[in-house]
């Protein structure tokens, strides 16, 4: 076909513009004209149609355009390989790569980058080795992709750093930027700083942005802000990535006033409607905004002109971090899909976290099924880690372990989640065995690992082992114990009745003891009836949390146990004077995908009469086999209690009502999972043991501290709680 040069040039220019602007409508129109032979068939033009559809997320159109290319060249293959890799179909990308008649360095770089996105470190390294063996030239893009593929494997990153220096690749700013980013992600801030300041004249905007982010990730917000000011002073261009990095630094500082001021500057500069900057703002307000943080996030979200997947993920994450807003997280996840966004691994991690807060087994399984159907290869390990937490928080330790065992690859977070699950379910021996398995597999523990391990020791009374693990933190693993680790040790000693030792431990802490440490000590004092130390712990908590009801309630209950009714009345009077109210006991259970909520001495549930009748009959059966109600938990003065008042109060505790409803509403043999907002009371703990034996059912109760798994009249905690 004859065509004039100007016609081809005009067509080409329009096509290139549509590719650059991701203008799918114009691109499709041009493709229709191209197919109708308005211009002659050309591999060059066909390649750009493949590129257009790839950039617009239309993979099927991209593949069709590739298949219709009469004489595909290496560029054609590189474009379609990149398209499949970006669409998380790395196995198809590899198949197409293997079909390239004569691959070039760009072909290898494209697939290595795809493996990096999929977090397939080994495959990327094998391809790199093959590339060198075949004599292909390695460049800065090769190294940058390979560094990204290493993720947090700092040993490999260090080896690549040596290779880069010896090969002269340290003169590439892109390679150095990758080292700054991934040293930081691997926890090696010192090495990241060294690379950044060693770059001298080759630093670009990406270098500065990467270093600002690195400081923010390591809670060095002040240094990040100082670097931002230096960047402006030296005349570097400030873009949306820089601004998002600064927001990350402000978040690490928990600096609400500074963040608000910076938000005003963003509005004046016109960046507040940018999706990338908006993600940073939502992350900031969700973590630093306090009670009204999510309402600020919603305002930011509504101002964004074109919310992308990252923005939706940040919004879902913000909701999931606020337990009472977890249902909003699930709603946002559904809405995100309705408008056409396909969830990625981050989406599933965030919504799975929200489902964990909701304690909805059915909803959690639906999300798990959707994750499987989505075929997400990218960072699948993070999704599996979230699923482990989801299942154990829903009382299903068996499915949590099943997910763990089926993982093709595990990291330290995987082990931390599973160890924590065992600890919270009272399976201390299994938790410690898994910790040893983790060490044997060559995975080094981190500070979170030791929180889980020490918690496991505390829940099962392994004082000597706990002390040993606490000492190994610094001696063997060079991890400095933090406030959380000291709090776990105080809890461990307190539960074991070593109250004087626990008090000495809290006094000798290198940090100021936080509310968690004093609360643990106060709980131990109640268990072991040490009134003097309890008063000290309660007073410390009252100073730290003046509006919290817990120290007042626990102290009043201890006075009631000891028969000190005047002191108890004084504490309650103080609560009334400060307008502090005890949170009512509330329990809920999911039956047939519907959540049923029960509140102590509340008659609002539509089946409450039937529940009370069932519970009354159950109590008769329980008493026949030895159950005796522990009336001290009624917290009523004996000579002031009316006829049957103590039994009435205890018999209508929310957890008993929820368990009774579950037993009467489900089939024999079906496991029950009840969640309570407060700690389970001593009488209810004893009663549910009897209920499990009489009904022949397994009953799991999740209170605000741990899980209690009741079966055959016994609890997984071994009455050590």
Question: Could you describe the 3D structure shown?
Answer:
The protein has a 6-stranded mixed sheet, covered by helices on one side. Among the domains are: 410-480; 487-582, Serine Threonine Protein Phosphatase 5, Tetratricopeptide repeat, CATH 1.25.40; 586-634 and 646-715, no CATH class. The model has no long low-confidence stretch (mean pLDDT 89). It starts with a helix and ends in a 6-residue tail after the last strand. The protein is built from 38 helices and 6 strands. Helix 14 (221-233) runs antiparallel to helix 15 (240-253), helix 19 runs antiparallel to helix 20 and helix 24 (397-406) packs antiparallel against helix 25. Helices cover 66% and strands 4% of the residues. It has 721 residues and is mainly α. The chain is elongated and about 95 Å long. Strand 4 and strand 5 (707-711) form a beta hairpin. The longest helix is centred in the C-terminal third of the chain and has 17 residues, at 608-624. Keywords: Repeat. PPR repeats lie at residues 104-138, 204-238, 308-343, 380-410, 411-445. Residues 626-721 form the DYW domain. One of its GO terms (biological process) is RNA modification. It comes from Capsella rubella.
What are the salient characteristics of this protein?
721 residues; 6 strands; Serine Threonine Protein Phosphatase 5, Tetratricopeptide repeat; mainly alpha; 6-stranded mixed beta sheet
């Amino acid at each position: 076909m004859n065509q004039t040069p100007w016609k081809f040039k005009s067509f080409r220019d329009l096509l290139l513009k549509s590719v650059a602007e991701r203008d799918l409508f114009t691109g499709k129109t041009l493709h229709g004209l191209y197919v109708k032979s308005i211009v002659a068939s050309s591999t060059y033009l066909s390649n750009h149609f493949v590129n257009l559809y790839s950039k617009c997320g239309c993979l099927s159109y991209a593949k069709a355009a590739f298949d219709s290319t009469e004489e595909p060249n290496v560029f054609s293959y590189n474009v379609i390989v990149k398209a499949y890799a970006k669409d998380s179909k790395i196995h198809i990308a590899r198949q197409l790569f293997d079909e390239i008649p004569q691959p070039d360095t760009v072909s290898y770089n494209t697939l290595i980058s795809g493996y990096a996105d999929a977090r397939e470190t080994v495959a990327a390294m094998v391809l790199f080795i093959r590339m060198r063996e075949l004599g292909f030239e390695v460049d800065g893009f090769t190294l940058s992709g390979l560094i990204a593929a290493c993720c947090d494997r700092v040993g490999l990153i260090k080896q690549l750093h040596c290779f880069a220096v010896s090969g002269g690749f340290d003169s590439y700013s892109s390679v150095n930027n990758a080292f700054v980013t991934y040293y930081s992600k691997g926890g090696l801030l010192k090495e990241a700083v060294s690379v950044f300041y060693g770059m001298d004249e080759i630093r670009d905007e990406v270098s500065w942005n990467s270093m600002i982010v690195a400081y923010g990730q390591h809670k060095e917000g002040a240094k990040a802000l100082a670097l931002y000011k230096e960047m402006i002073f030296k005349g570097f261009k400030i873009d949306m990535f820089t601004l998002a990095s600064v927001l990350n630094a402000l978040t690490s500082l928990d600096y609400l006033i500074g963040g608000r001021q910076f938000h005003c500057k963003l509005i004046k500069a016109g960046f507040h409607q940018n999706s990338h900057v908006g993600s940073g703002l939502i992350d900031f307000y969700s973590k630093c905004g306090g009670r009204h943080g999510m309402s600020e996030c919603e305002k930011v979200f509504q101002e964004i002109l074109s919310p992308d997947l990252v923005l939706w993920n940040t919004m879902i994450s913000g909701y999931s971090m606020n337990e009472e807003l977890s249902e909003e997280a699930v709603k946002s996840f559904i809405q995100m899909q309705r408008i056409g966004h396909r969830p990625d691994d981050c989406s599933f991690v965030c919504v799975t976290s929200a489902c964990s807060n909701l304690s909805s087994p059915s909803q959690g399984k639906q999300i798990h099924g959707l994750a499987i159907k989505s075929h997400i290869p990218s960072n699948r390990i993070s999704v599996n880690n979230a699923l482990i937490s989801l299942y154990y928080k829903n009382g299903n330790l068996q499915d949590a372990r099943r997910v763990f065992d089926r993982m093709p690859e595990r990291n330290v977070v995987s082990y931390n989640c599973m160890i924590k699950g065992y600890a919270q379910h009272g399976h201390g021996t299994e938790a410690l065995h898994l910790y040893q398995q983790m060490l044997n597999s060559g995975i080094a523990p981190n500070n979170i690992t030791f929180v889980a391990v020490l918690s496991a020791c505390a829940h099962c009374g392994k004082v000597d082992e706990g002390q040993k693990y606490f000492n190994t933190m610094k001696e063997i693993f060079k991890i400095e114990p933090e406030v959380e680790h000291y709090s776990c040790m105080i809890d461990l000693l307190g539960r074991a009745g070593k109250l004087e030792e626990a008090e000495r431990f809290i006094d000798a802490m290198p940090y100021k003891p936080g509310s968690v440490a004093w609360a643990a000590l106060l709980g131990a004092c109640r268990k072991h009836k040490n009134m003097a130390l309890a008063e000290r712990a309660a007073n410390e908590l009252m100073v730290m949390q003046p509006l919290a009801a817990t120290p007042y309630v626990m102290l009043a209950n201890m006075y009631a146990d000891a028969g000190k009714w005047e002191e108890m009345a004084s504490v309650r009077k103080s609560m009334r004077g400060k307008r502090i109210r005890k949170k009512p006991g509330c329990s809920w259970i999911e039956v047939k995908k519907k959540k049923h909520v029960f509140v102590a001495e509340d008659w609002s549930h539509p089946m409450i009469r039937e529940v009370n009748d069932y519970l009354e009959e159950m109590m008769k059966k329980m008493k026949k086999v030895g159950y005796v109600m522990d009336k001290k938990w009624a917290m009523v003065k004996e000579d002031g209690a009316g006829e049957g008042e103590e039994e009435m109060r205890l018999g209508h505790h929310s957890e008993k009502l929820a368990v009774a409803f579950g037993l009467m509403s489900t089939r024999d043999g079906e496991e029950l999972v009840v969640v309570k907002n407060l700690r389970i009371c001593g009488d209810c703990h004893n009663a549910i043991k009897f209920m499990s034996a009489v009904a022949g059912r397994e009953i799991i109760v999740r209170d605000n501290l741990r899980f209690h798994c009741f079966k055959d009249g016994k609890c997984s905690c071994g009455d050590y709680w």
